[in-house]
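ok, trying the design again with the full structure, not the truncated one.
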């Protein structure tokens, strides 16, 4: 069934955009084309403003709202991409992740990509309370999520603007994804601009995209 809506807990600094993508074939059979990989390096001919210190600081303030500290190894994923691209270490992973990384790199908006067949509705976005963590890589390393705004599915938190959960990451068999763009309300419109370009890249790959609506939570999530 299509995903039409995500429940969003009130957050004064978050500007969120969400979309689903259906690929014409599993990602293992959908090589990332050269034109897409060319966006994995610093360049200026992109249809979106480059991130500046104002926007980077706004994203960090948004992540600090619940008490999380977005620095060091817990910095926003978009900042990691800039460093990796500047050093020539931002390589191709698959078409879905490459499109995500290209848009996040050039817009400064952190983006999560979730395999919809590895996640279970209902979906919501809310700040995580104490005592919760998840594994974020194949090595089994865990991330403390306390105070961080995350995407939740029926099994718990599964993605955020720093590191996504290993259990819902894309793989060679992925056909359907949910993408979350973690923008800042202090720089309004940037998440929407990034989402528009993101959808254009995905549709150029032959994928079908659909915007996901957001509904306000009736009461704070626990």
């Amino acid at each position: 069934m299509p995903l039409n809506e995500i429940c969003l807990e009130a957050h004064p600094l978050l500007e969120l955009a969400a979309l689903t993508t259906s690929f014409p074939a599993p990602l293992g059979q959908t090589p990332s084309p050269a034109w897409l990989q060319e966006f994995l390096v610093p360049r200026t001919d992109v249809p979106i403003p480059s991130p500046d210190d104002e926007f980077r600081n706004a994203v960090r303030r948004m992540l600090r709202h619940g008490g999380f500290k977005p620095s060091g190894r817990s910095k926003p994923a978009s900042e990691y991409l800039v460093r990796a691209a500047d050093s020539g270490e931002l390589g191709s992973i698959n078409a879905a992740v490459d499109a995500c990384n290209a848009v996040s790199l050039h817009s400064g908006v952190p983006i999560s990509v979730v395999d919809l067949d590895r996640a279970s509705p209902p979906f919501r976005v809310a700040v995580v309370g104490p005592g919760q963590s998840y594994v974020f890589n194949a090595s089994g390393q865990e991330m403390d999520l306390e105070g961080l705004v995350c995407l939740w599915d029926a099994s718990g938190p599964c993605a955020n603007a720093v590191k996504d959960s290993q259990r819902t990451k894309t793989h060679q068999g992925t056909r359907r994804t949910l993408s979350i763009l973690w923008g800042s309300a202090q720089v309004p419109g940037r998440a929407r601009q990034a989402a528009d370009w993101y959808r254009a890249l995905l549709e150029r790959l032959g994928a079908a995209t659909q915007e996901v609506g957001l509904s306000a939570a009736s009461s704070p999530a626990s």
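Keeping the full-length input from now on. The first helix runs from residue 34 to 37.
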